[in-house]
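Appendix B, Record 12. Input sequence as logged:
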Amino acid sequence: MYVKRFPQHTGLIMNFGDFSSVVQLGVGLHLGTALLQMYGEIGLQPMIRSIERMQNVAEDPNHPPKDEYRDQLATIISRFEVYKIQMFTDYKRYLIVNSVVAAMLIVILVFISYCYSTPISPQGSIVFVALSILPAPITLFCHWHDATNALRPLLDAAKALEAKMI
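Logged structural output:
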């Protein structure tokens, strides 16, 4: 039976090859985050449901709302459409950042394949891990935070109008 023996490291000597999996994970995280528009699926749902409820009330022939409410609803809907365009524009900026980081990590993977058994310093290992893992969740959080803050005033206006209409 063949048993592969791994050389035993003494101390904190690490090689570039020890980080290839972490960098591969980083490429996947960044490409996945770049292609994932979760905020559009999750974050906009309260606003979409509120608009649908108000439109149902506005279309009810038994209890027609005041023209003032119809005008306010039309304003909210148009502001929401503008918001979605702005959110998509911001999303493209985060898409570019994550794609650039993923491309850098691919270059690092190629470098690692050539220098697989070259020792790396502990500081270098920290840089590899941080570059591989941190930018994706940071950009996702920033996009989510910016989108939520921009939507909040519009959602508050929709809730206030919905309360008046109902």
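The mean pLDDT is 80.
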